[in-house]
Amino acid sequence: MQSSMPDLHAVLERPAADFAARAGAAYLGLALGDALGATVEFMTPREIQAQHGCHRTIRGGGWLKLKSGAVTDDTTMALALGDAILAAGGIDAHAIGEAFDTWMRAKPVDIGNTVRRGIIEFRRTGRLEAPPSEHDAGNGACMRVLPVALATLGQPEDAVRAACRVQAHLTHNNPLSDAGTETIVLMVQDALRGADRDTLIRRRLAPLLAAFPLFDPAGKREENPSGFIKDTLRAVFQALLDTDSFETCLIDVVNRGGDADTTGAIAGMLAGALYGPGSLPEPWLAALDHGARRACAVQSQALLAQACGNTPATL
């Protein structure tokens, strides 16, 4: 289907501050979903209900014993990716590999096995692409991909998809991972351009389901979703379809338990772009780690500026 939405520069002819704020909301949404979900990561819905009732407060804790407002690898790896894109002036696999290696050497609070293996192999051999593997259909490439969505705004869709694969294949080289990750990026970009939820479903989700029906959110509620990209995105898509606000979307998805920091992060970036900055709950923003909040806000604008070929002040 050919898009009828305007390109990036046409969009920026409407109030630029609104467009930039929506990009910031996507990045803050990622961090908020990560921090909210981390408290209940690896719990079942029944365990969450018994311990928290309906979990709806950023409070830390969880199996990682986080401080209140702290984020996990979902947010910090995205920031590392964004730093690499900004430093290189674009999507550069070697720069991204170096950034991921530096991130891992700093001993992040958590790291997935597939991510760890890919970074160690890059460190050892300089390899920029993991071999294709049916076992690498995890959600690690998707959770961190938001900087690519912002940095490639205005580029042709084929270029956006290729950029997604550059960052993904350092650790995850799998067609399911690629398809899900690329769909999330394109949905975020369309939401930043002003697409509503129904348009996102028709324009992006429908083609994904035609190619990979196992992502279909219809049917049984996805609870206790694993780190498998299919489970993760079914939970995210169900939460998006079953709610009508940023807050209700994130509460829905994290109370499903399982890999809740990652389902929260992915739902957060998408819902932040869709519903905008006014939808982000003030108590959640106040509770979010100050350093993470500032880094997300600053990096979102720098990446958007790089995409536009402008300075942040002109946005």
Explain briefly what this protein structure is.
By secondary structure, this protein is mainly α.
Give a verbal description of the structure:
With 315 residues, this protein is mainly alpha-helical. It has 16 helices and no strands. It is globular, with a radius of gyration of 18 Å. The relative contact order is 0.20. Mean pLDDT is 93; it is low at 1-14 and 310-315.
The protein's oligomeric status is: single chain
* Structural class estimated from helices and strands: mainly alpha
Q: Percent of residues in beta strands? A: under 5%
Q: What is the gyration radius calculated from CA atoms?
A: 18 Å
List keywords for this structure.
mainly alpha; 0% strand; disordered C terminus
Write the layout of secondary structure elements.
Elements (H helix, E strand, L loop, with lengths): L7 H4 L4 H23 L6 H8 L20 H16 L4 H13 L7 H13 L14 H4 L2 H6 L5 H12 L6 H18 L4 H15 L17 H14 L3 H9 L5 H16 L6 H6 L2 H19 L7
Helix pairs in contact: 2-13, 2-14, 2-16, 4-5, 4-16, 5-6, 9-10, 10-11, 10-14, 12-13, 12-14, 13-14
